[in-house]
Amino acid sequence: MLFSSLTFLFFFLPMTIIVYYTETRRIIRNMFLLFASVLFYAWGDIRYLPILFSTVFISYIGAIFIERSNHKQSTAAVFILLDLSMLFYFKYAGFFLENIGLLFHREWSLKLVLPLGISFYTFQALSYLIDVCRGGVKAQHNFFNLSLYICFFPQLIAGPIVKYHDIADQIDDRKETTDAFYYGFRRFIIGLAKKVLIANASGEIADKIFALPIAEFDAPIAWLGAMAYTFQIYYDFSGYSDMAIGLGALFGFRIPENFNYPYISKSISEFWRRWHISLGTWFKEYLFYPVSVSLMNSRAYRLIKKHFGKKTAGVFLSIVALTIVWGATGLWHGAAWTFIVWGLYNGFFILFELLTGWGKTKKSKLLSAIQHLYAVFVFVISFVIFRSESCNHALHYIQNMFGLIKEHTVYLKLPYYLNHYNILIFTLAFLFSFPIFKDILNVKNKYYQTIINIFIMIAFSLSVFELTANTFNPFIYFRF
Questions:
Q1: Which residue from 173, 140, 177 is spatially nearest to 60, judged by alpha carbons?
Q2: Domain map of the chain by residue range?
């Protein structure tokens, strides 16, 4: 079930809100939210409900064992590997089997359907186990409360990835207020409009262009496809995050922000502080820091530091740690070489900025503009790699963007893709990627708020109309 489906908007969500607020006891409200979340997941694919609850059960038992164990790290490692084993089997087993087969000139394959949201809820479960191991939180002895944390439907299938220590207290102690409900309702509609009106329209253009044989489109069309996908993936995923945050607020939960206008960044490091914030902080907290500490305690690091100095050792640490983290980030997004290359591509530019100091605040407006153009160029190219079906296709597409493929038979020219409606959508996508309207929503003036609410309801009406008239309504991050 999609947030941007008529079934969710006019049946599931209204009924969930009505039943939830009919009851006043916290324990009953939590139990009902858990029931609603299970129903939401089962509606999408009931076959994988046992996988979800296996993750919950392993995490529940594991945390209790970790808390009572005298060897917390060893015990935690066992249960972390159990959670990861299911993710590996369903998401990566086929990929690794296929590539091992290529080494031995064999055709080995394993076709599995990826369970909905497995990457997201597995990472939430892992954050809980690691937090308990570190002593940051206590093990949750109420199985239903832990189930609600992992299965809560607003963020179950496509995030944000909510770390346990960020939400643990809210499960038993939160306040549902009129202001929070009003905020959640508006935030949900804004996310819905971003998804339905901007992301879907951009996605139709991107899909048409990326589906073309390389020889059937030229550089201008290639750039249009890249920019269309750049808008699609941002408004698709940030729109979903807005809806998730808004839905959380409807039930009294404060879900952390996941996007902060990433397209205004002046470096790739800044871009990743603004893009998919929950994933970035997860990898920083649970992978980058532990890997860095392990490297600093390694014999190789000590030898390099002794013979070549602290600075060289620091460069060695950065290269190894960033390669591991960004290789893992790429793999998290999908079991394909394109995702691994995409991850390492981002890691390369972050390492470059770290070693050169690029992207730091400059007083010159010209330098600031150059930095911004650099960041835009790098992340647009990165999304071409991300979107492509293979590394070979990505390479040829990028070559096409720069006019390096000379032989073309272009049947459809640029104006075919840029009608008046699409130009309007691209203009809105460009404008809303800057925080120029951010403060308007919070203006403490009843007259302005009335006007804003009218525009929000118009956006909702247009979104519903678009949903009834158009069947193109994918969510990109459901595939992860």
A1: 140
A2: 6-174, 181-479
The Cα–Cα gap between 32 and 16 comes to 8
CA dihedral for 331, 334, 337, 343, sign (positive or negative): negative
Q: Per-residue pLDDT tens for 392-442?
A: 999 999 999 998 887 777 777 888 888 889 999 999 999 999 988 777 777
* Interval 180-230: pLDDT, tens: 999 999 999 999 999 999 999 999 999 999 999 988 888 999 999 999 999
Hey, which residues are catalytic here?
333
Amino acid 237: pLDDT:
94
Length of the chain: 480
- Spatial separation of the C-alpha atoms in residues 78 and 133, rounded to whole Å: 12
- Cβ-based neighbours of 378, under 8 Å, separated by 6 or more: 268, 349
Rounded CA-CA distance 253/235 in Å is 23
- The torsion angles phi and psi of 135, rounded to 5 degrees, stand at 85, 10
For residue 478, pLDDT beyond 70: no
Residue 148 sits at the vertex; the CA angle it makes with 144 and 153, to the nearest 5 degrees, is 145
Q: What does the angle CA 84 – CA 2 – CA 185 come to, to the nearest 5 degrees? A: 110
Q: Is 255 helix (H, G, I), strand (E, B) or coil?
A: coil
